[in-house]
Amino acid sequence: GAVVSQHPSRVICKSGTSVKIECRSLDFQATTMFWYRQFPKQSLMLMATSNEGSKATYEQGVEKDKFLINHASLTLSTLTVTSAHPEDSSFYICSAPVQGWVTEAFFGQGTRLTVV
Amino acid sequence: KNEVEQSPQNLTAQEGEFITINCSYSVGISALHWLQQHPGGGIVSLFMLSSGKKKHGRLIATINIQEKHSSLHITASHPRDSAVYICAVRSEDFGNEKLTFGTGTRLTIIP
Fold it and tell me: Across residues A36-41, what is the average pLDDT?
C-alpha cells in the first residue's frame, strides 16, 4: 500500500527556536496533505490542509505565522513550528489521501515535539 | 455534541475475549475509517467502509448507514491488540477529503 514517511519521529528543541517536520509520500503523488496535532489522550485535531503549489488552508484558531506549511512538490509537505514555546509540545502527524475509486487515508509515523 | 462519538472510551479485557468498539456519527458521510494507534503514536488504517461489512484476520468492521453506526470487532483478542482504536468519517461533500475523528477507544488486553 501507499506509504507516508514523516521525519523526525522525535525532536527536542529550546524555546524560541524553529523546528521543521517533513512529510513525504513515497510511492504516490499527494496534491493534498493534512497536518494534525494530538494532545495526550485526546484525538487528532486538524491544523491545516496543505495544497501543492498553493497556500495552505488553516483551521480556525491555528496561527498560520506560527505553523508554517510548505507544499512545494507533489511528494513533500513541511510543517515548521516557529519560535517554539513549551505549549507547542505535542504530537504532530501528517496524512495524505490517496484518490482512486474510493479515497484512502495514509498516515505518517508522527513527530513528538518537546520544547524545553 | 461531537459529530463522531465512540464507546467505550476505555476497555480492558482478558486475552481471548471478543471485543466490540462502537462508533456513531451525526453527519452524512462518504466513508468511515477505523484506525489503530499504538503507544508510539503511529497510526495504521485498518478498514475503510462505505457499506456492509469487512473482515481482515481477526478484525471485523460493520457499518449501518441508515442508523449512522459502525462497529469494530476483534475476535480471540491478544495483548498485541492493545492500542487506541479511532473511528474517523469522511464527509459526503464531493471533493472534501477531510476526516472527522472520534476521541478513540483505549483497549488493553491482559494476558
Answer: 89
